Amino acid sequence: MRLLLDTHVYLWWLDNPALLSSKAVEVIEDPRNTVFVSAAVSWEITIKQAIGKLNVPHEIMAFMNDLNFIELPITIQHTKDLAQLENIHNDPFDRILLAQAKADKLTFITRDRQSLKYSGIKMIRA
Question: Could you tell me which of 32, 31, 6 has the C-alpha nearest to residue 19?
């Protein structure tokens, strides 16, 4: 299975995996699965740090490599795929993550209620 982590899932995985559902933990831990972390996650974390909404170590994205998570760049095709998404969510970070999951056929792990409403995207509730 190819997985894409929402920003809060990445942060919870690093800080307190007990916050995640047992299914989310199971699939993230499974070595047969490939776990991706989008550049959008780094973008969101950086912005929230800068405006004082998030207090995490500045090198938090470096832990990705230690966990064998793979960076998922944002491509022009991903941004074009935004137009194909249902108009449910207004958060630009969540929307690009959803577009990436759909375009790249990734299973999106999230607890965001709005994100979970999208059809045509495989999801696991975090």
Answer: 6
